[in-house]
Design a protein that fits this description.
Radius of gyration: 24 Å
CATH class of the largest domain: Alpha Beta
Number of strands: 20
Shape: globular
CATH superfamily of the largest domain: Thiamin diphosphate (ThDP)-binding fold, Pyr/PP domains
Number of helices: 20
Structural class: alpha/beta
Number of domains: 3
Length: about 550
Amino acid sequence: MTRHGGQILVDQLQRLGVRRVFSVPGESFLAALDGLHDSGIANIVCRHEGGAAMMAEAHGKMTGQPGTCFVTRGPGATNASAGVHVARQDSTPMVLFVGQVARAHRDREAFQEVDYRAMFGGLAKWVAEVEQTERLPEYIARAFCVAVSGRPGPVVLALPEDMLSARVARPAIRAPLVELAAPHAGAAEEALDWLARAERPLVVVGGPHWSKDAAQDLAMFAETQGLPVALGFRRQDYLDNRHPCYAGDLSVGMNPGLAERVKAADALLVIGSPLGDIETRGYTLIDPADPHCRICHVHSDPGEPGRVYPPELAVTADAVTFTRALAHLPACGRDWSDWTRAARADYAAWVAPQETPGAVKLEEVVRWLSDTLPEDAILTNGAGNYAAWLHRYFCYKRHGTQLAPTSGSMGYGFPAAVSAALEHPDRTVVCFAGDGCFQMTLTEMSTAVQHGAAPIVVVVNNGRYGTIRMHQEKQYPGRVSGTDLANPDFAALAQAYGGHGEVVTKTADFPAAFARSRAAGTLAVIELQVDAEALSTTTRLSDLAPGA
């Protein structure tokens, strides 16, 4: 019996446990669309390849399994590259299938032809082009393996259309890889002995491979040893923020008290995090050339420790299994309680709401969401100053409740919310978005309605690209250029797509608007009309005016 390449591809996806793919259709992979037709794999058809790739990336974040995306050649691939970049910087497993011109037409600059190895070489962990139809299972199995191994990330497979439509005898389908994790007990003991020599230790946790059990293990380890824990940028759901050892997140606009604590620490136990640009405030909190503290760096990629900061101790291990080993160790006998209580006090002071100008106060809106939403509600966001209110005032209580790009990609929050609502239709999903951020991917409202996803979008409308305006005022005061926005009626636009829409002009009106949006049972958009003065959680626009 023969099958075309599209059917062989889908057979392999089924064997690997793929339940859902995200796509924008193209003539270059018609055979794959045919293979999906009666496969039982849900094909979420999107409106833009960037949105499709971001939905797939969010799926990978939520499940730990590669998010799967199909896009067409040329423009489809270039559009999807935004999502590939998110997956790369966020260490998210993802496999992108890209259509390609027929093999006989390559290197002629045929219609929409691109050299994908060159294009994605710096973005993906591995890029390959499948030449032989019978080798599709081999390539796909390897792609899924590479995507999840070591430091997870995106893989790109190019599929020449004639290879995909060719019929061959059905090849053997590859089974998924089963990898046994090492226990790391000995390494964990050494790391704790190393940490016990410190007077002012700080545990920093981030990166991929996290889970509900890992969050519980981290809580147990921190409590047993009495250690303060800081979470990496947009990894705030790795530990219940109510835990007495939680010291806050190392994010854009981080708590100044936490920043000072990083500088005062004499030992950092870094688990999973790359300890990158954002976590170190542009490498200023810790000097890469001469760190002020000792560092033990635990990472699944052996090439990560020492890439920026020279560690005194390096461990090759994924964060989940290493934290599990730490959680089972007895107390080391050191008393860091005063240091840890002080770190917690700094956090508590930071999350006390600081009033911002205007009739709609984001600090109150976010605190209401934090106090009111179910503990398993999923919060998503993209990039922009508006997200700082979410970072500062929302208390994350469970793992798997934050979907946000550490890459700082605008437009991410809404596709991620659609993906989350499809994966968890029984949970409340809220996208917190800026007006500029939302407009980058709001066409996926059509996707949400078509496929029955019902996220609630809270749009912060201040009529500008707020982050860029802030930097502009700091560096070129009084010379506004290219940062103002002409916005639509977001509520009416949601209604036009078949969803529910509301406009809120006073903080007191938000709870009722949210209740109506939740009861609508469909896509909903709540537009918050905020004062342009509210530039950040700590700064007014007028504070940056010349002579202020």
